[in-house]
TrEMBL record, chains A, B, C, D:
The keyword tRNA-binding does not apply. Homotetramer. The keyword Oxidoreductase applies. Residues 162-181 are annotated as: Disordered. This is 4-hydroxy-tetrahydrodipicolinate reductase. (S)-2,3,4,5-tetrahydrodipicolinate binds at H139, G148, T149. InterPro entries: DapB_C, DapB_N, DapB_N_CS, DHDPR_bac, NAD(P)-bd_dom_sf. Residues 114-250 form the Dihydrodipicolinate reductase C-terminal domain. The gene is dapB.
Amino acid sequence: MTSPDNIRVGVLGARGRMGAQAVQAVEGAEGMEVVAKLDAGDALSGLVDAKAGVVIDFTHPDAVMDNLRFVVENGISAVVGTTGFTEERLARVREWLSGKPETGVLIAPNFALGAVLAMRFAAQAARFYESAEIIELHHNRKADAPSGTAAHTARMVAEARRSAGLRPGADATTSEVDGARGASVDDVRVHSVRLPGLVAHEEILFGGQGETLTIRHDSIDRVSFMPGVLLGVREVRRRPGLTVGLENVLDL
Amino acid sequence: MTSPDNIRVGVLGARGRMGAQAVQAVEGAEGMEVVAKLDAGDALSGLVDAKAGVVIDFTHPDAVMDNLRFVVENGISAVVGTTGFTEERLARVREWLSGKPETGVLIAPNFALGAVLAMRFAAQAARFYESAEIIELHHNRKADAPSGTAAHTARMVAEARRSAGLRPGADATTSEVDGARGASVDDVRVHSVRLPGLVAHEEILFGGQGETLTIRHDSIDRVSFMPGVLLGVREVRRRPGLTVGLENVLDL
Amino acid sequence: MTSPDNIRVGVLGARGRMGAQAVQAVEGAEGMEVVAKLDAGDALSGLVDAKAGVVIDFTHPDAVMDNLRFVVENGISAVVGTTGFTEERLARVREWLSGKPETGVLIAPNFALGAVLAMRFAAQAARFYESAEIIELHHNRKADAPSGTAAHTARMVAEARRSAGLRPGADATTSEVDGARGASVDDVRVHSVRLPGLVAHEEILFGGQGETLTIRHDSIDRVSFMPGVLLGVREVRRRPGLTVGLENVLDL
Amino acid sequence: MTSPDNIRVGVLGARGRMGAQAVQAVEGAEGMEVVAKLDAGDALSGLVDAKAGVVIDFTHPDAVMDNLRFVVENGISAVVGTTGFTEERLARVREWLSGKPETGVLIAPNFALGAVLAMRFAAQAARFYESAEIIELHHNRKADAPSGTAAHTARMVAEARRSAGLRPGADATTSEVDGARGASVDDVRVHSVRLPGLVAHEEILFGGQGETLTIRHDSIDRVSFMPGVLLGVREVRRRPGLTVGLENVLDL
C-alpha cells in the first residue's frame, strides 16, 4: 500500500526466485512499499531516482559487493540474503559504513525466523544439559550432510557448552556399526535423514537427568524466509553499521 | 564431598519424597554438602547449630511460612519448592527480607529446568508467529486438564503476543465437534492428552508462513527437578531479596 | 511411455486440479499411458474410441454416476476419487457391475497411501492398548474440526476396541477447562490443532503400561495422492465388482 | 485371583528382575494364577507338583535348555524371554516338541507389544514407499549402536523392500561429514541418538511423494514387557510346537 510514511524499498535481483518473493512480500506488508525492482543489467542509479530507503539484495556473490558499495555511498540501508561473505568482504563493508552513521547493512545467511530462533534457543539451553545431539531431516535431493544450518547449530551449541565448562556428553558406545552415532561436529553428534516427502527440518535434543528438551523447526516453503526479510527491512535503519545474522535484530 | 569451601545446605522436609531426593542430589553435587536434615517436629535451631548457609524447603503450605521467617531472621538463604504462595504470602516474605541485604529466597513452582526453559523460549518466540497452540500429554491418572504448567505457559504466550500487538491467531473453524479445538486459555488453544505409558510432556507449537517452530519438554522422572534445585542453591546467595520463578536465576 | 502392453487410461475431469495431476502421474508411470483426457462437455464415447481399459474419475458428484454407468456398460474399469457416494449410490454401482464379471470399480475417499496405512495400522494396534487418542494438525484455513480422516480413524479404532471387548480408556480427569480433553468421537478423544505453516498431519497415540505407540502421517502436497491412484489403476482390473476404500487393494 | 478355570503358571527365574515382574503381572491378571516360583537351585519337579500348565522362563542361557526339556517332557507349555537361542538350539526344542501335540513353546527376543507392532507395521508399509530410514534413541549408558531392535527392524524393512522389487532409496548426498548419514544396515540407514533422560525409543520413517509415514515406539519402563508375556501365556497352549517371535501370536 502506498503512503508517504512507508519505507521505500528497492529490490535487487527482483526477477530471481527469492527476489520475486521479496517483491511480493513487501507489496503485501504494512508500512512499506516497493519503489524499484532491479535485476542484472539495470542501472543502480534507479534506486536513487526512486528515493529508496532500504534495498533487499538477493543477487549473486559476483554482484553483491558492487551493489553494497553503491547503496552505502548513497545512504541507502541494505538487507542482504546473498551468500559468499568472507571475513575480508565483511571488513570492506564495515569500512564503507564507517563514514555513514545513519546507514545500516544487515547480512544474514538464513532469514527463516524459526531456524534462527531454534539456533538461539539451542545456544541458550546448551549449558543446562549434560548432552546434546541434532537430527536434521531433508528431502533426498540434498547434496550435503549435515545441512549448513545443522552444522552451524552444532558449533553454536558446542561453543555454549565450552563457555560453561562442560565437556563433551558422555557416550558409552563400545560397539558401533560405522556411522550409527552420526557425524561429530565440534563434539556434537549430528544425524542427517534424507527422504522424499520431507522438505527442511531440524531438531535439537538436550538430555539431562530424567528429562529431555527438544527444539524443532519445520520449513516446508521458502515463503518462510519472508517474515525475516520484512523484519530486517524494518530494523536495519535503526541499526547503523554492519549487522551479521538475523538473530541480532530480534531483541531476544 | 566435605570441604571448607562448600555451601552448607540444610534440608527441610528431608524425609519427604522430594526432600529425600534433594538430600541425595546435594550429597552427589560438587561444591556443597548436607549439614542438616530436618523434618516435621525437628527444631529449626538445628540449622543454626549446623551453620547452614542455604536451606532447601520441600515441606507443606502450613509449615513453610514459619520456616522462612526463621531462616531469614538467621541470615540463611532459602530455595523453596513448597506450594501455596499467594501474593499476600510473597509480600510478607519480601518484608522479612527487606532488612537482610545478604539473604536471598528463591520460590519456584517448577524446578524442572526443561519446563522452565520451554516456557521462557515460548514467551520469546510468541511475538514472531501468527499463531500458537499447546499440546500437553500426561499419564491418565492426572486429575486436571490442562496441566498447571501448560496453563501457565499459555498465559505467558498470550501476554507476549498482546505486548507485541498481535491479535488471537486466525481460526477458520466453522464446524466443530464439541471440544475438538481444545480449551481456550487466554485465547491460546490448549489440548490435553491422557494415556497410560506417558509421564509429563508439553509441546508448544508456533505457526507462520510455510514454517512451524515446536518446543517440547519430556519429563519421565521427578529426579529431573534436582538440577534446578542445585542451581537454585548456587544462585540464591548471590541474589538478595525475593526471587519468584527459576527462570529468573538462569541468566538467559 | 507408449507400449502395446500398457494399461490404457482415460482421465475424466482431466482439466481439474486432481485430474490434471492424475494425467501427469500416469504419463510418468511405467506400464500405463493416457489415451483420453476428457472434461465436462466432452463425449464419453471418446473413451471407447481410445480403447481405454481403466478410467480415473476426479469429477463431481453430479457427473460421476453417469460416468460410471457408461464405463461399466462398456467394460471399462474405474478408479474414482470423486466424493458424494451414499449407500444408495454404491448399491446402484454394484447392480451395474453384477453382469460384468471382468469389470472393477474402486471408489476411495482417500488415495493418500500413508493416511490409509495409518488408519489400518491404528485399527490393528487398537486391541492391544488400554487407551488411544488422536491428534490431527492442519493449516488454519480448514473449516471442520476434527478432520474427516481423523473422525474416520477414531471410529475404526473404537470399533476395533469394542470387538476386542475393551471399554473406553480410563480417564481420571475431574477438573477440566472446557474442551481441554478434546472431542469424543465414538469414545475416542480427538484433538484438532490449527496453525499456519501446517498442511495435513495425523497422529494416533496408543498407551499401555510403560510404553506408547504412535503412528503419524504427514502430507504436504496433494501429489501424495498419486501413488495411491496409480496403485488403484494397476489393481482394479484384477478385482471385479465394487471395492470401497484403497485399503482393500493393498493386500496387507 | 484363584479359580479352577485359571491358567496355572510357574515362573522360572522368579527372583530375577524380569521374573519378579512376571510374578507380579500374573498375580494381577485375570484368568491366571502363579502356582510355582522357582529360581536357581530349586527342583523343576516343583512345577509338576504344582500342576503348572504354562511356565514363564526368564533365566539364563546356561539353564534354559534343561528347563525346556523338562517342561516339554512333562507336557507343560512355555513362554521364554531368556536369550541365547541359536538355530541349533531351536532345532532341539522343535525335536522335543515333535512328540507332544498339545504342548507349545513361545520364544521371543522382545515382549514389548509396541516394539513388535512397530516392526510388523514397518514391514507392511515398506513396499509402498520409495525410501525408509530409522532413528533409535536410547539413554547414554547403552553400549551398542544401533540397538538390536533397530537393526532387526532395518533388516525386516529391507527384506520387504527387496520382495517388492524396490531398490535402495535414492540418496543425492555427495558431500558428507563422516557418519552424518548414519549406519547402513542392509541398505537401510539407521541413526542412533544417545542422551541421558531418554530410555528406549524407535522411529521408522517412510518417505514418498509429498508425504511421510512415521511409526514410533516409546518404552520408559520394563513393565512394558508384561502385557506381551501375559498374551503369550494365554496363546501358547493353543499353538502346539515351537513359535519364535511374539508377532506370530498377535493374529494381525
